[in-house]
Amino acid sequence: xxxxxxxxxxxxxxxxxxxxxxxxxxxxxxxxxxxxxxxxxxxxxxxxxxxxxxxxxxxxxxxxxxxxxxxxxxxxxxxxxxxxxxxxxxxxxxxxxxxxxxxxxxxxxxxxxxxxxxxxxxxxxxxxxxxxxxxxxxxxxxxxxxxxxxxxxxxxxxxxxxxxxxxxxxxxxxxxxxxxxxxxxxxxxxxxxxxxxxxxxxxxxxxxxxxxxxxxxxxxxxxxxxxxxxxxxxxxxxxxxxxxxx
Length: 246
Known about the structure:
Blueprint: H1 2-26, H2 42-69, H3 71-74, H4 78-104, H5 117-141, H6 150-166, E1 176-181, H7 187-196, E2 200-205, E3 210-214, E4 228-233, H8 235-241
Antiparallel strand pairs: 1-3, 1-4, 2-3
InterPro entries: DUF2243_membrane (IPR018719)
Pfam family, one: DUF2243
Keywords: Membrane, Transmembrane, Transmembrane helix
């Protein structure tokens, strides 16, 4: 049980990364604290998303360290002692998140803009929580080592890592980009930084440091060096501004 816990901890961390990167950044359906009163400032939402990902780094590193310490014994039956527990841990994250974050604490829902958020919560719980956990339990209870599950874990890791880079891209076909600058920057400073980057301002909220811009086909990576804390596509206002005061 102690050896299997190594894979479960690693899978738990990967589940958190998958959830945070996909839902907070790429799809932008919610942030960690979307429904917490007094957290309507988008900079605070992004900050707490960062704290969440930092915590998942710690969990994943702990899982990797546990796997390394037990790699000799895990290597004798990797299917039961690594791949299966990783799937169980991955599913466990989504089960705990659904119960605790969605329904008990109510700090966010899967789709903030849905008319029936419970359906999205249940669908996500089944697809990414229950099914992976059941698959892991099935593999752990099977007989004989050497089942080719390495590709499954490798694919999961690559998918989670790739989404981190993809999250920085605006949605394809979207001409406008939402940019959030760090707190304390004046309207003049924001305009000057955007002008340096060749961005045309379409709309700006000086109080919150938010601007909707047309980058003219250029990438938005350089804006991070000019004080931006978030560069996202035009899906951001639809997914996040609907509950904010922006």
